[in-house]
Amino acid sequence: MSNEKPRQLNMEVLRVVAMLMIITLHFLDKGDVLKDFTLQMGFNRNLAWIIEAMCIGSVNIYVLISGYFLSTSEFKIKKVILLWAQILFYSWIITVIYAIATKGAFNFENGIYDWIPLIMPVTGSHYWFATVYILLYIFFPFLNKGINAMEKKQLKGIIIAALAVFSIWNTFLPFTQPLTDREGMDICWFACLYLIAAYIRKYPEDFKLQRWMYFLFFALSSLLVFVLGKGLLLADSFIGKLGGYAKNFYPYNSFFILFASVCLFIFVVKAGEKKCPNWIAKTVLFAAQGTFGVYLLHEHSLLRYLWPKWFKVEEISQTPLFILHLLGTILAVFAVGILVDFVRRLIFGLFVKNTKK
């Protein structure tokens, strides 16, 4: 994740909140809370799908944060090396600990092919986000060249054209064959988000609405994702052939998810720097430094389905304790991840100066 100085506290708060949202997504998905999206669902499952809609844009937000800072930064090979080393650290160390704890009981179905992502996590796409993010970082100087060479009208036109191809098409014409669609898990979509973030930073005067309105639009757009899905299911019950599109509004590159992500991002950007007690600022910065480590820890392929079982996510999600359990679990996973990454930074600090993420 981007860590350009000086660090802005409002953006670091957003970084922490976005990671909590990402853990929530994995709680719901890997914990088998969501199950199928149907018309007839109980209260908890409906609530889970609403929470999913509210949190799914968190991945977009991370890229927007990076684009916001990187659009005025210079490429540093040291950052690529440190990111790569951090990913290797988590992939290798967790694999070794798992092997010791289970006495080598990996139960891999595809033999050596299951080992490749663990041994080469970046090129093997062990963590899809990390792989695509590194690609974005490698290419961001070229994006900056283009951004700086274009006039405002040209940059806006490029963004609109890109969104038409990679977002609007897939959202409103799902029954056609798009040019490309990995539901936002690819370098093309990250580049789109990068351009949007760069535009927001370069032309803040274009975003004139009162700050609270952006948060309202975030909430409404997120809720609309759920409502539209339900609407398609209802229509399907009468005319058929539409039920398969009910979840089409949930991918990262859905126009409604994008709109919600950008609105929440602008809401935080417009907050600016707020004065707060020094201990709060230090706590936020400490937590923000470890967010990427939180992701690498709980999304390791050997752990991503284990920790939801440890916390009995599926069972408790069907009880009145669902929300309290969700909040407690994501805070626990986040806290453990922050502490583990603190230890990782201490270890890296023995070999390289200024290894903060």
Explain this structure to me?
The structure is a single chain. The chain has helices at residues 9-30, 43-55, 58-70, 77-102, 112-119, 128-149, 152-172, 187-202, 211-239, 255-269, 278-289, 291-298, 306-310, 313-316, 322-349. The chain has 357 residues and is an all-alpha fold. The protein is globular, with a radius of gyration of 21 Å. The protein has one domain. The termini are close together.
Describe, in short, the structure shown:
This protein is mostly helical. Helices cover 68% and strands 0% of the residues. It has one domain.
List keywords for this structure.
single chain; 357 residues; mainly alpha; 15 helices; 68% helix; globular
Gross morphology: globular
Strand content: under 5%
Rg value: 21 Å
List low-pLDDT spans: none
Order of helices and strands: HHHHHHHHHHHHHHH
On the 0 to 100 scale, the average pLDDT is: 92
- Domain count: the total is 1
Give the terminus-to-terminus CA distance: 7 Å
Question: Which structural class fits the helix and strand makeup?
Answer: mainly alpha
